[in-house]
Amino acid sequence: MKNTLFFMTFAVFFLFGCTSNKKQTALNYPKAKKVDTVDTYFGHKVPDPYRWLENENSEETKNWVKEENALTESYLSKIPFKEALKKRLEKIWNYPKYGVPFKRGGLYFFFKNDGMQNQSVLYVQKTLSSNPEVLLDPNKLSSDGTVALSSLSVSKDGKYLAYSVARGGSDWNEIYVMKISDHKMLEDHINWVKFSGISWKGSGFFYSAYGEPKKGEELSQQNKFHKVYYHDLGTSQKDDRVVFQNKEKPLRNYYSYTTRDESFLIISESESTSGNALYAAKLSNLKNLHFVKLADGFNYDYNVEGHIGDELLVLTNENAPFYKLIGIDFKDPSKQKDIIPEKSSEKEVLQSVGMVGNELYAQYLKDASSRGYFYGLNGDLIRELQLPGIGTISGFSGQKGDNEAFYGFTSFTVPNSIYELNLITGEAKLMEKSDVDFDPDNYVTEQVFYKSKDGTKVPMFITYKKGMKRDGSNPTLLYGYGGFNISLTPSFSISRMAFLEQGGIYAMANLRGGGEYGEEWHEAGTKMKKQNVFDDFIAAAQYLIAEKYTTSSKLAIMGGSNGGLLIGAAMTQQPQLFKVAIPMVGVMDMLRYQKFTIGWAWASDYGRSDDSETMFEYLYHYSPLHNIKKGVVYPATLALTADHDDRVVPAHTFKFMATLQANASKENPALVRIETKAGHGAGKPTAKQIDESTDIYSFIMYNLGMHPDFK
Questions:
Q1: Within this chain, do residues 55 and 101 fall inside the same structural domain, yes or no?
Q2: Same domain, 151 and 178
Q3: Where do runs of H (alpha helix) occur along 509-642?
Q4: Residue 636: pLDDT above 90?
Q5: What mean pLDDT comes out for the span 46-55?
Q6: Residue 629 lies in a domain
Q7: I need a surface site. Which of 50, 276, 444, 530 has the fewest CB within 10 A?
Q8: Based on the domain organization, do 27 and 131 belong to the same domain?
Q9: 402 in any annotated domain
Q10: Are the C-beta atoms of residues 438 and 415 closer than 8 Å to each other?
Q11: How far apart are CA 148 and CA 245, in angstroms?
Q12: Domains held by the chain: number
């Protein structure tokens, strides 16, 4: 947000103490009109007075956004330590960041950010000891870094790079192609790509796309009729061939990928975020593809991890909640066998399998941290990958027949480190380690297990500075997600370090709805069991208070997307439990989420308000938008969204915050930060990340009564 917003005629006045953290008690919120829109669900009438905010292109909505941003910027600018925090973030942010190398066509590729570059740069080198050269610098795609690289794929022979870019944070992608030897851009250009990979076969590639949306509705129109195409290099997009579609089912997605040797094309068909059908075709004749159905949808997940001859190696949770690897005969899919069985007794979740060297590398999750094992092609265990501690394997790459592989490792206090693994000896060598102006030895991470409302044991990581006293006085930030089978694992956040430096505690709870303990853990937080997720989170806060890490007046909560829904639900169900709430790009209107862009695909986790009266009543009972009460003292709230978010459209946050501002007690601020030329979060440039982190953590620290001293 620009400082010029201070001088807009509708800017409001604030009274802030210059040397104390005395809170403003009465903010002059922008006026949001109310309309008489009422929806009827199974005879139940539900008012929607801020429906007009769903139209992000209207002048009324644009003016409301400007006024809200001006108010928020004015509030934040008065925080006495905000600029010092930004300078500290800029200093510690400026360190080199490395990605895991990968190999194609005898060449090595890797990403690196020198420190403050808006986007990481793709490098290529002929050998690991040769000088790397820049292959693609996304920072040159736009002057402000808001055009970001979304995905890329190098052809099997190492001759071509196909990559997709997203503009302003949108999920819409465009594909371009480069000849690697001379960095020459080809004329190939593909539009309206979404939820797609890029998979090479010969002199072309497969991708998924929608038809061109109506002008002005690109960021809100419901996405229908996903198709898989094949593009020949040197041809126009209009000549691309549709290789897979379903004209009878408009609300399904089709993701395509080829096996590493380009022998098979795999199609994953889905109608939600979990569960898929699986198809495969041999690529011996591109113009006459014959698809074989390997697995029916949509009760289980299936993903092809490789193949041995005509036996496809498939990762699945069918009759295996912790996942297993099976072999499926392409010629006769009824012939199946277990290769790596489920590790249910150990409660280890199999996340991925890859063929490296002459072995299978299997990555697991054990109590929300990574494990790696090597197996023979017959499934016999060979050895475990030795890791430097409890943390997350942040990528693993290797090729069949090679003697080397690469992986990254990170934790809450250690940034990503890159290792080269000798597949013959099993020895790992540190390749790159980031030097950060932050001493991880001064901090400790512990994992605790607490009981939720129904007695379920839930894990939580807690990170803090050594010497911390459990006297209930520590400012604490509790983070959660709890949905869509997504697991939260230890990860490094440079912005979080500034909070820890000042005596803050960071806690991350592994809630039901996630994938930390397999499919049963996921299902225990879906549809009519969604309240379990909120109960788990609330119980985490109660545990932190009971164990004297903190107290309600020192506790902040934060989450994004489905985690934004979590924060919205927690703060409306237990407002007195938290002092600060940071809901980011949240799903706040549980009655209408399915009507926008890809929202319909979330029904497997949420259910829909039009499914049944029972489902409507359940959603209505916890929908954050519909559970704001008049006169209640809610936590100090800073909600975040973005004008180009076409996954969770900003209307969710707009309507939630207009309702909160109109009804909540004026004791705590209720502010919204609306980023421009940004989306759901992916590809956000460094400059915007620093600005956002500065605003978030200055708001948190200020409202928790902290007095930070940034050196």
A1: no
A2: yes
A3: 518-523, 531-546, 562-573, 603-606, 613-622
A4: yes
A5: 96
A6: yes
A7: 444
A8: no
A9: no
A10: no
A11: 29
A12: 2
Q: Is the pLDDT of residue 2 over 50?
A: no
- Domain boundary residue among 258, 284, 311? 258
Gap between the Cα atoms of 43 and 236, Å rounded: 52
Query: 């802030």: which residue's tokens?
Result: 16
Residue 617 lies in a domain: yes
- Secondary structure of residue 622 in the 3-state scheme: helix
Residue 5 confidence (pLDDT) above 90: no
Q: What domain range includes position 107?
A: 97-258
Among 199, 225, 258, the domain-final residue is 258
Q: Could you tell me the CATH number of the domain that includes residue 18? A: 3.40.50.1820
Query: CATH number for the domain including 213?
Result: 2.130.10.120
Same structural domain, 123 and 57: no
Q: Return the amino acid letter for 625.
A: L
Please report whether residue 399 resides in a domain. no
The residues annotated with a catalytic role in the active site are 561, 680
pLDDT in tens, 611-631: 999 999 999 999 999 999 999
- What is the DSSP pairing of strand 555-560 with strand 476-479? parallel
Nearest to 191 by CA among 156, 239, 237: 237
∠483-485-490 over CA atoms, to 5°?
90
126 and 77 assigned to the same domain: no
Reply yes or no: is the peptide bond before residue 298 cis, omega within 30 of 0.
Answer: yes
Pick from 405, 363, 369, 339: nearest CA to 108: 405
Instruction: Tell me the pTM.
Output: 0.89
Q: What is the dihedral sign for C-alpha 577, 581, 583, 588?
A: positive
Q: Are residues 85 and 127 in the same domain?
A: no
Identify whether residues 486 and 576 lie together within a single domain.
yes
Sign of CA dihedral 353, 200, 310, 109: negative
Output the pLDDT for position 219.
66
Chain-centre distance for alpha carbon 394 = 14
Which residues, 6+ apart, have CB-to-CB distance to 557 below 8 Å? 477, 478, 479, 480, 537, 541, 567, 570, 571, 578, 580, 581, 582, 635
Where do we find the tokens 């080829």?
258
Listing DSSP states for 303-371 in one string gives EEEEEETTEEEEEE-TT-TT-EEEEEESS-TT-EEEEE--BTTTTEEEEEEEEEBTEEEEEEEETTEEE
Is 639 in contact with 563 (CB distance < 8 Å)?
no
What tokens does 14 get? 């604030």
Q: Looking at residue 582, what DSSP letter applies? A: E
Q: 151 and 225: one domain?
A: yes
Return the C-alpha torsion angle 616, 617, 621, 626, nearest 10. 60
Q: Give residue for tokens 């690697």.
A: 180
**Among 160-174, 429-443, 623-637, which range has the highest average pLDDT?**
623-637
Bridge partners of 254, per DSSP, are 269
